Amino acid sequence: MTMKLIYTCCPLCHQEGSVAVNDKGYDDYIAGKPIAEALPKLTESQREMLVSGLCHDCWNNFFPEE
C-alpha cells in the first residue's frame, strides 16, 4: 500500500504539519466520501487538520473541553 504525505499550515498560528494517508483513502476523500469513512485510521485531530487546517492546539483554544 502506498502512502501520500499531505502538508498543512494552520491558518491561525502558521504551524506546519503533515498527515500520512493511504492512496485509496485519499482518492475516496477527494472524490467526496466523508473523511471519517475515507480515512478512518486518522485521529480526530489529523482529520481536522485536513478539513479546516487548524492544528490541534488552535482547535483546543477555540473549542476548549469542558
Protein model, in words:
It is a single chain. The protein is α+β, with helices and mostly antiparallel strands and 66 residues long. It has one domain (3-62). 41% of the residues lie in helices and 21% in strands. It has four helices and two strands. The chain has a two-stranded antiparallel ribbon. The N and C termini lie far apart (39 Å). The mean pLDDT is 92.
Task: Compose a concise summary of this entry.
With 66 residues, this protein is of the alpha+beta class. The chain has helices spanning 23-30, 35-38, 44-51, 56-62; strands spanning 3-9, 16-22.
Let me know the largest β-sheet.
Answer: 2 strands, antiparallel
Query: What is the domain total for the residues?
Result: 1
Order the strands across the largest sheet as they lie in space: 1-2
Query: How many individual β-strands?
Result: 2
Low-confidence stretches: none
**Estimated structural class:** alpha+beta
| Share of helix, binned | 40-55%
SSE blueprint:
Blueprint: E1 3-9, E2 16-22, H1 23-30, H2 35-38, H3 44-51, H4 56-62
Antiparallel strand pairs: 1-2
What are its keywords?
66 residues, alpha+beta, two-stranded antiparallel ribbon, 41% helix
